Amino acid sequence: MKIIILGAGQVGTTLAENLVSEDNDITLVDNAEARLEYLQDKHDLRVVRGLASSPAVLREAGAPDADLLVAVTSSDEVNMVACQVSYTLFNTPTKIARIRQGDYLREKDKLFLPEVFPIDHIISPEKLVSDEVVRLIDYPGALQVAHFADQRISLVVCKAYYGGPLVGYAISALREHMPHIDCRIVSILRQDITIRPQGSTIIEAGDEVTFICETTYIKAVMSELQRLEKPYKRVMIVGGGNIGASVAKRLEHSCIVKLIERDAAKAMVLSEKLSDTLVFHGDASDQSLLFEEHIENIDAFISLTSDDEANIMAALLAKRLGAKKALVLIQRMAYINLIQGGAIDIAISPQQATISALLAHVRKGDTPNVATLRHGVAEALEVVIHGDEATSAVVGRKVSELKLPNGVILGAILRRNEVIIAKKDVVLQDEDHVVVYVSDKKIVPDIERLFQPSAFFI
Question: Which segments constitute the RCK N-terminal domain (predicted)?
């Protein structure tokens, strides 16, 4: 596939790194010459320097015969115009744009039409991060939750602790503990080493366990790995930007929400906009303010400013003063593994959330959802099977008969309205939605080829 990526920031660069290893023809466009030279030396891709929305630059980047344009520059306006130019002049088949401004998103049904701004898919990092934060609040104790197949199937990452009934026992004991609930444990991270789980694998305290199950049963499965935490009822949010305001709005009817904003004018606007949220003008690193607002009673402290260092320091202080959980927004990927799992419980990456959403549109075949997992190497994807026994390598075959690469596990299937755990004797059918766990993203092209129907398959 010939792909043009506009913008060599963190998202554009990470997307290029993900796709260049999958036999795609990648061209990266940006104004920063030094950064382009570095990326060209490091990866097998073309680079073009210039304004991303310029017809001449797009032509030089190969827009006339590109299959896909991904506009992820730091400017919404440049992204929108680039898609318009690419459509009007070069008839590019698929155009994806990152749009951040809420004003544009609120009018998206009128703006993003073929006759106005012809954008096929809109990616909004703010909405993606808000969704992720709310999911983590909904499932206390989870480190990551990703929904698939119309939210009927979920992948969950959580830590095993002493007190969990399965801790100290083999995975096979899960069936005895929960005879009426099916789930598939797909990965265990133990002391930074990934273990492929077998029935005889013993779950140990401290293991980071990734499992796939029907969404309804998430808490039941988690209760086997840890003592379930009580629902978060008292939440403190730092930062009244788009993400902070959105999270507060979505939580304020089910939780007691306090929001701290440093800018007085913005705090005033938020206090009028958020009817059930208590908004403070102040600094989250002010000990006296946190004490006054009873930080020791806060179930979840969520720091969502655009400043990584401020988020980290505020969360560390809040935990030291008694907050039960700390979630922080981190822009720099290098910080995430450094801080997560210590005093700070969860680091949320807008880049990772954005990449996951982009990959769902970039993957070959019918792939409605993709989730990049917490450490960035593994991936889970939802694939819709099409074809019959004559045109497909998977339709009509048992899971045990598939030639799956090492590190690939079929987790669960949504068939019409039924969720089925993909056991060895399950026979795959046309229109099945299959959630596949891939331990290494480099294997994804093999999975795409396996599930794509072919008129020449024998």
Answer: 1-123, 232-348
